[in-house]
Design goal:
Pfam families: Cu-oxidase, Cu-oxidase_2, Cu-oxidase_3. By secondary structure, this protein is mainly beta. Helices cover 10% and strands 37% of the residues. It contains 8 helices and 33 strands. The strands form 6 sheets. It has a 7-stranded mixed beta sheet. Strands 23-24-25-33-32-27-30 form a 7-stranded mixed beta sheet. Strands 10-9-12-17-14-15 form a 6-stranded mixed beta sheet, with no helix packed on it. Helix 2 packs across helix 3. The structure holds copper (II) ion.
Length: 572
């Protein structure tokens, strides 16, 4: 089950190509190879021999023919040695996205790459720059991703700590034999060769020209970590979030959740020298990091931004400046509120604002919680329904009306303002929301079922409420007192397939269906595809249900997705 490949692209797609669009053909072969991305050998999933995989770059309107070949000893969906053709058109999106394996924990081992969509010929972007730098961030685990999953199940829903961080697939773990022994996982750590001379690993150096404005496209493929990125003495100006152009925002440290991307501008206007590039996780527990690094230090990548005219170079393993040290694991108000403020400061560029429909026609509140499967292993649950991957793909189960399809029995939910009857589940227990169901009274599309074409789209509000409540506790009243009793919750990164969405609000504590919407930004909210959800906090998104199909809404953290933190929004 785990050795399988199913690719997803974080894009909207349509069957209708635009005029003057081109067809772009890519051949991608996924293999399992021994590499040393941080100097310690381990099995790595490469695409065309590369980790991360080759960048796919098209123009908006193009059609992509991606022939993906499974070069691993694998099972379905793509059989070993077989090729699957992904054929889709990108109708109107522009931005920095990614393609990635979507099965099991595969993404933690590789099998992903950048997917860049440029504007159509003749269209420009709302900012200027001289050069482009493409940057991917990742956390890296010496534990094989299969064992990573077992670890997650065995340690009550806890992720194993990251061993190191990678920039463009490259990092530097201090894998001297002594460190290797204390930092390893014993039998769970199958490859231990310390290969410091490998060309795969070593200091990360970004070479730049002086007095030049760079557009850095920064994407996080992290399996778990909520990343912070900064360049010493250089202000980063955010101009794009996923596919949404933003009002320019200056930051010294970029916060980026798994699956998100940003374009930032920076100008090399400092003295010609070498400057720290810092990649770290915002929240780490030093004691927890001991297991991963063999020292009290949490993993931290310190790369170098090197001016071409500089004679200096910063040694990558030099201790980072104190301003770049880990903040420890503080999910207290100052730390979380700072992140919420960071997100709320990102608004849509005024020339690209698209109007949303308020009030929404559908209201959904999702309480993310932790439950247990029949073997008492921890799994994520949504509104008390513990997730299970469907045995039969949902659309096939629907079409043939097979027994493991969707049970239309409505469930109670636990929050005021919900439309209880939207929530149903599959026979195996996958929570499913029918946004435009075909049961009576549930269609948003009016005559859609008769004509086959939507005549009206639904405006949907989803509020994610973060808590680690267990299913057994979930019939308790949800209030601040209750949240304060919970074990430490973790950040999430929620993604909706097939749609971009407006991030209309985020807040600390418990969402209030009456008061919280008064804080919403309904004027110029950012329009993107992944939203960070912080501990003991909520996030509200809105989208137009105008792309009929079965779409996963899932957390982008690998272990959370693998442990079934997902549901599907169905509409036909
Ligand atoms: Cu999550």
């Amino acid at each position: 089950m785990l050795w399988t490949v199913a690719f997803a692209v974080t894009l909207l797609s349509s069957a209708a190509p635009l005029a003057r669009a081109e067809v772009q053909t890519y051949n991608l072969t996924v293999k399992s190879e021994i590499r040393s991305p941080d100097c310690l050998e381990r099995r790595t999933l490469t695409v065309n021999g590369l980790f991360p995989g080759p960048t796919i770059r098209i123009r908006s309107g193009d059609t992509v023919l991606a022939h993906v070949t499974n070069g691993m000893p694998s099972e379905c969906p793509i059989l070993p040695g077989e090729t699957f053709l992904y054929n889709f058109t990108v109708p109107d999106q522009v931005g920095t996205f990614w393609y990635h394996a979507h099965l099991g924990m595969e993404r933690a081992a590789g099998a992903w790459g950048l997917f860049i969509v440029d504007p159509p010929l003749g269209q420009s972007e709302p900012f200027a720059y001289d050069q482009e730098l493409d940057i991917t961030l990742a956390d890296w685990y010496h534990m094989d991703e299969i064992y990573y999953g077992y670890y997650f199940l065995a340690v009550n829903g806890a992720n194993p700590p990251a061993n190191s961080f990678l920039l463009n697939g490259r990092g530097q773990f201090n894998c001297t034999p002594a460190i290797e022994r204390t930092g390893g996982y014993g039998d769970l750590d199958p490859y231990k060769a310390c290969n410091v001379s490998s060309a795969d690993c070593g200091p990360t150096v970004l070479k730049v020209q002086p007095n030049t404005t760079y557009r850095a496209r920064i994407l996080s493929g992290a399996a778990q970590s909520y990343m912070l990125f900064s360049i010493e003495n250089h202000t980063l100006t955010i101009v794009q979030a996923d596919g949404g152009y933003t009002e320019p925002r200056n930051v010294s440290v970029l916060e980026i959740a798994s699956g998100q991307s940003y374009s930032v501008l920076f100008t090399t206007n400092q003295a010609p020298n070498a400057y720290y590039v810092s990649v770290r996780s915002k929240w780490e527990t030093p004691g927890y990091c001991m297991q991963a690094t063999g020292t009290g230090q949490c993993p931290h990548l310190t790369g170098t931004l090197l001016y071409s005219s500089s004679a200096n170079a910063v040694a990558q393993n030099a201790p980072p400046p104190s301003s770049l040290q880990s903040q420890g694991i503080s999910f207290g108000d100052p730390s979380v509120n700072a992140s919420i403020a960071f997100q709320k400061n990102i608004t849509m560029n005024k020339d690209y604002v698209t109007p949303l429909t308020w009030p929404p026609t559908r209201n959904i509140t999702i309480l993310t919680s932790l439950g247990a499967d029949p073997d008492s292993h921890p799994v994520f649950a949504l509104n008390g329904i513990e997730g299970r991957e469907p045995v039969t793909p949902l659309l096939i189960a629907e079409y043939y009306n097979v027994s493991d399809g969707i049970d239309n029995t409505a469930h109670d939910t636990y929050r005021p303002g919900d439309e209880t009857s939207l929530l149903v589940e599959t026979a195996q227990g996958l929570p499913v929301y029918r946004i435009n169901g075909n049961e009576s009274g549930m269609s948003c599309y009016g005559t859609e079922l008769a004509s086959g074409a939507p005549t009206e789209s639904c405006s949907v509000l989803i509020v994610f409420q973060n808590s680690m409540v267990t299913t057994q506790q979930s019939n308790m009243a949800i209030n601040d007192t209750y949240l304060a009793l919970l074990p430490v919750a973790v950040p999430h990164a929620w993604h909706l397939q097939g749609h971009d969405f407006w991030v209309v609000g985020q807040g600390r504590g418990v969402y209030d269906a009456t008061e919280s919407p008064k804080t919403f930004n309904l004027v110029n909210p950012i329009y993107r595809n992944t939203v960070a959800l912080y501990p003991r906090a909520w996030a509200a998104i809105m989208f137009n249900a105008d792309n009929p199909g079965a779409w996963f809404v899932h957390c982008h953290l690998d272990a959370h997705m693998w442990a079934d933190s997902l549901f599907a929004a169905m509409r036909f």
